[in-house]
Amino acid sequence: MRTVNRHVSLLFRMGERHLNSHLDGTGVTSGTAPLLLELRAGGERPLSALAVAVGVDKAHITRSIRVLEKAGHVSVEPSAAGGRRLTASLTRQGRQVADRVERAMLAWVEIVSQGVDPADLEVTNAVFDQFYANALEHFAALTGPPRHEPTEAAERPPGRQRSRG
Questions:
Q1: How many CB atoms lie within 10 A of CB 134?
Q2: In degrees rounded to 5, what are phi and psi of residue 81?
Q3: Residue numbers of the domain that contains 50
Q4: Total domains present in the chain
C-alpha cells in the first residue's frame, strides 16, 4: 500500500503561503485563520473547547486568541460559568476576515483541483474527513475526551468549506 507522500505536506505549506498572501495586513495568518472559521461556525465558546476543535493545546489557543483580540477580530470575556475560564467570540470585523479566509481557501482548492474528476475529489474529501476524525481521536486519547463535539466547519477540511459566493 502506498503511503501518503511528501506532496501532501508540500501542498499544505503552499496552501499556507497562498492564504497568508491573501490575508496580508489583516493581523491573521494561516495559523490563526482556522480559529476564525471555527468561531464563525460554532459561535462563542470556551478557549478549551476551541483548542479541541482545532487540535492545538491550550497555551497555543491563548496566545493565538490574544493576537486575534489585539487585531480586533475576537472578543474575549470571562465565562458565565465563572472561574478562570474564558470564552471567545467573533467581532463583526472578525466575521468579515473569516469570510475572506474562506474565499482564499476555496480559491486554493480551485487551483489545486484543476483537471481532477469531481468523483475523485469526493473520494479525496472522504479520505481527509477520516484522517481528521482519526487525528481528533488520537489527541483525545492523549488529553482526555473532547468537551464538545466539533462544529461542522471543524469536521470538513478546508476544501469542503461552504462557499458564500
A1: 10
A2: -75, -10
A3: 25-160
A4: 1
Does 49 fall in a domain?
A: yes
Predicted structure pTM score: 0.78
20, part of any domain: no
CATH number at residue 66: 1.10.10.10
CA distance 74 to 63: 13
Q: Is residue 69 part of a domain?
A: yes
Give the pLDDT confidence score for residue 4 in this predicted structure. Answer: 65
Within 8 A by CB and 6+ apart from 136, the residues are 52, 55, 146, 150
Q: What is the pLDDT of residues 26-77, one digit of tens each?
A: 999 999 999 999 999 999 999 988 998 888 888 999 999 999 999 999 999 9
Q: Which of 3-7, 58-62, 156-160 has the lowest mean pLDDT?
A: 156-160
CB–CB of 15/108 below 8 Å? yes
pLDDT in tens, 98-116: 999 999 999 999 999 999 9
Residue 42 lies in a domain: yes
CA-based nearest residue to 103, from 36, 50, 7: 36
**Gap between the terminal Cα atoms of the chain:** 39
The b-or-e profile of 91-130 (16+ CB within 10 A means b, else e) is beebeebbebbbebbbebbeeeeeeeeeeeeeeeeeebee
